[in-house]
Amino acid sequence: MKLYYQSHRGRSALAGLLVLLLPIFFPTLFSPFSHASPSLFSEWNAPKPRHSRLLKSALQRETSNGLQSDLWIPLANQGWKPYAESTSATTLPSESNGYIQVFLDGGLNQQRMGICDAVAVAKILNATLVIPHFEVNPVWQDSSSFMEIYDVDHFINVLKDDISIVKGLPDEFSWSTREYYATAIRDNRIKSAPVHASANWYLENVMPVLQSYGIAAISPFSHRLAFDNMPKDIQHLRCKVNFQALGFVPHIRALGDALVERLRYPPSKISLGDNYLREYTDANDKQGAGKFVALHLRFDKDMAAHSACDFGGGKAEKLALAKYRQVIWQGRVLNSQFTDEELRSQGRCPLTPEEIGLLLAALGFDNSTRLYLASHKVYGGEARISTLRNLFPLMEDKKSLASSEERAQIKGKASLLAAVDYYVSMHSDIFISASPGNMHNAMVGLRTYSNLKTIRPNMALLGQLFLNKSMVWSDFQQAVVEGHETRQGQIRLRKPKQSIYTYPAPDCMCNA
Q1: Do residues 410 and 437 both lie within one domain?
Q2: Residue 25 has pLDDT above 70, yes or no
Q3: Contact 250/151 with Cβ under 8 angstroms?
Q4: What is the residue range of 180's domain?
Q5: Burial of 126 (0-12, 13-18, 19+ CB in 10 A)
Q6: Same domain as 268, residue 232
Q7: pLDDT for 7 beyond 50
Q8: Are residues 271 and 369 in the same domain?
Q9: What is the mean pLDDT of residues 20-33?
Q10: Residue 265 contacts residue 344 (beta carbons within 8 Å)
């Protein structure tokens, strides 16, 4: 169905007509376009392996002991360490200039960046920050609040010497709610904050609002503070928020610790439906701690549709994704003008479960590797994951590791589910992501800060390798190993315009 990937006007028009007419003639096929449920197409038509030649060799692979042991060696000291504290020991002014409210959209990790920036803006303006409000996520329909995800008392206490933070507004400002700003234009709402605004922009445009009304509500706020040309103390404060102040609530940490324990020291288990009867090994058997890889497999329908790539599900899948793209993204997916081959050769297609499995196998991970699958809904369900599971039969996730009782507090809450994945991933021996995104960026930054091994897939190289259908396993493996030698957690200094949260050196770290 190249109709959806060509730039010719005639073909694009015909494709658009098909997208509009198909739901009319086949309404039952197009009704279940829920963000949270996998497409029925992918369940009816289980995708066949796209790289069967490589897959056959990977399933028969024999990993050398040297290659396997090298993978698990922790990163050597690279000469960088986190700043212990802000270099300037400032004290809070006696009076605040007013209250700052921010309304954050996006998922867990986009909101996390927004929180860090909100603290920085409050510091710039000498304002009191109101605990940020999280918008309902339009994709996952999640209404989780800041206090449901993060330990708010810890957050306030860590930052008490930097800015003033309140959990709620005093009575005289109780009118300042999300609903209030949704009903009309309000003079104290800032809607004009440019992307990556400077500190001076806030002093010139938001400070007068604070002085006039005593409160300023900034929405939208995502990516509304620049990464460059910021005072050092502001940069250090952003780092402090991200790496020290934002701790998860106790029950998230407790569940995360339990999952990490079960990954490192697998108990014997007897399946009892959705629960497990677990018999833990004796403490004396725990002298050799197990290791595991955390794999962030962001392969949901939203990502698949937005990438405009072909994932091997046939005509039905292409039609389903095209319809989703038209309805949800309304023609804003610019990548759709390129062919699938062009997108893959440019590294612009997320890796499928099959492809990330082949990457891991080529790097040297064998079928005894314990894999933690950090993911929400995988597009195509178990049928899509089965190839990855065949390569790595010791693959686990939240559902397989935790009982239904343990999952009860996070059930149906996408942000809390993501928080558990975040927590387990930051405690893994190795982290790898199947596609760039906010989770990938957040984890790369955190693990750089802590000098932990993180494999960053070379997307362009892999795209070109997977397009070569005649490549034999030995050549594929050699190309993969060579192409990832310098992509396993080595320090990469932040370049202009790059995120401080993805590249914490040198803003958050010093060269010891």
Answers
A1: yes
A2: no
A3: yes
A4: 99-247
A5: middle
A6: no
A7: no
A8: yes
A9: 41
A10: no
Rounded Cα distance between 308 and 343, Å, is 8
> What was the pLDDT predicted at 81?
93
Backbone angles phi, psi at 293, to 5 degrees: -105, 130
Q: What is the CATH number of the domain that holds 205?
A: 3.40.50
Total domains present in the chain: 2
Which token pair is 481?
């190993």
Q: How far is it, in rounded angstroms, from Cα 133 to Cα 145?
A: 7
Specify if 359 maps to a domain: yes
Q: How far apart are CA 70 and CA 66, in angstroms?
A: 6
**401-410 — which CB contacts under 8 Å span 24+ positions?**
401/258, 401/259, 401/262, 401/263, 402/255, 402/258, 402/259, 403/274, 403/275, 403/276, 404/274, 404/275, 405/275, 406/255, 406/258, 407/255, 409/251, 409/255, 410/252, 410/255
- pTM greater than 0.70 (yes/no): yes
pLDDT tens digit string along 47-68?
788 999 999 999 998 766 556 6
Same domain, 65 and 113: no
pLDDT, tens only, 441-472: 999 999 999 999 999 999 999 999 999 999 99
Q: Do 257 and 120 fall within a single domain?
A: no
Percent of the chain with pLDDT over 70: 82
How far is CA 204 from each of CA 15, 131, 200, 210, 212, rounded to the nearest angstrom? 48, 24, 6, 11, 13
Taking only the tens place, the pLDDT of each residue in 155-212 is 999 999 999 999 999 999 999 999 999 999 999 999 999 999 999 999 999 999 999 9
Q: How many CB atoms lie under 10 A from the CB of residue 429?
A: 19
What token pair was written down for 203?
Answer: 């002093």
Nearest in space to 61 (alpha carbons), one of 492, 493, 473, 500: 473
CB atoms within 10 A of CB 496: 7
Q: What is the pLDDT of residue 392?
A: 96
pLDDT digits (tens, 9 = 90+) for 270-297: 343 444 444 444 433 433 349 999 999 8
200 and 270 belong to one structural domain: no
87 located within any domain: no
312/492: higher pLDDT: 492
Per the domain annotation, does 207 fall within a domain? yes
Residue 340 domain-assigned (yes or no): no
Q: What is the DSSP string of 119-159?
A: HHHHHHHT-EEEPPEEPPPTTT-----HHHHB-HHHHHHHT
Tokens of 333: 């997916």
**505 and 435: one domain?**
yes
4-15 residues labelled b (16+ CB within 10 A) or e (exposed): bbeeeeeebeeb
At residue 437, the pLDDT reads 87
Q: Give the span between the Cα atoms of 483 and 46, in whole angstroms.
A: 31
Is there a single domain that holds both residue 68 and residue 115? Answer: no
- 81: which residues sit within 8 A by CB, 6+ positions away? 509, 510, 512
**For residue 437, which of 337, 296, 335 has the smallest C-alpha distance?**
296
